[in-house]
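Encode chain A's predicted structure.
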Amino acid sequence: MRRGSMGDRMHRTRCRAVRDDGDCDATRRMRGCWWSWISFQFGWPLMHGCPLNGTKSCAGGRCTRPQAAGIGNEALSMLAEKRREWAVARLGPSLQRMRWDRLTLGIGLGYTLLAWSLSYGTVLPQLRDDLHLSASLASLHGSMFGFCLLIMALFGSRILARMPNRLSLGCSVTGMVSGGVLFGFGHSPVLTLTGAGIAGAGAALMVIVVPAVVFAHQPQAPTHAMSTLNAFPMISSTLLPLAVSAAAAATISWRVAYVAPLLLIGTAIAVIAGRSPVPGTAVPEPARLREVASVAHIRRRWLVLVFGVMVEIGTVTWASSIMHDLGHASKGSAASLTIGFFVGMFAGRLALSRLLERIDEQLLLILSFVGSLGFLAPFLIGPGLAVRIIGLTGLGISLSPVYPLSVTRIFELHDDTNALGRVAALASGAGVTFGPLLLGVLSDMAGLAWATVVLPVFAIGGLITLGRPQSA
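Encoded structure for chain A:
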């Protein structure tokens, strides 16, 4: 509360221990209190030491409760709003928190479905054995998502502009479920690649549409919303390896472990968010990609996102194979040994908004790429499985801020969020397409051990693109 505001005057009127400078001890404690900060983090009222909430007062006395003081609900609402304004002004807009509703939860589950349907890296060893695939052809399944992202971002602007966001999200979920089922039960490369293409198209639609919807639906806390929602895919990425390992231990096909939860997640989305209103994000004069590409800083931020996605998706796609081929883990356990990466990603993205309260976003991205380089060494070189697991877990923590923070930084540069969604999709598509595919091609040519050298090269590329703090 600012001194002299109505809330402040009412506070002093009702408090029994007003100091000479016009502030009671309770007010002074509230302004600098760690408990008030934590309360605001979780959306609780700022009521520590506040006489108007009936808590113990300053100077050993006790303030009257609001009802006894004769303060009405309207005045209390005014005070609550004033306290929120004070907290935002003092502690910064980064402390604002997203609100949860059916649509937000549905989007989170949609990201969970996306990660589950596209987690081909977890089942890559089993798929290669079943269909006798080369590394290049196997990695093409993951690249189908990237191809669809590139095609939609480059050539689908008119179609996407005519589709309501609600219809786009519905088509996205349908595509991921149907494509995932076809991939899971396909017994030929043609069927599995077709399924991967359909799922990739649905996932691409979600990646393009969701950021604009989130920025429209959560205008007060887009960064917190993006970082939190991008933690949902890590749930799938953590549980799928466990499901595949459990299925192998129970002599159940990996296909069942992959498809059954896919159907459950799709059903949950339909039940929870099927009837939720979705905000529109269309603008009277849509911006062209060429126009958006000319905006200051956008190319550098776009390249940072490309390099970050290359490292992340390349690791996700090939982590299980690296544990099996280089770490000599069994096929059943190799998948479960990769969950440290996703647990690290999950924890890091949940903590992102709090990190931004202490670290500049540019510096945080630099630290992320530096940390990734540091943890890639033990993950790729070892020695031993334990060291590789530690390196992979640390890599997940280090990489966690890159994608949501890079997307948010791109969305800060223009008003047309639909156009920016296509720009971000182009970056994701390039990273998803060429990262795993390059690893697969090099693996066929020189072996997996030499092919993994491209991962630290991608991280160095992101670090160089970022440049010095405050330069982008």
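Residues 6-91 form one domain.
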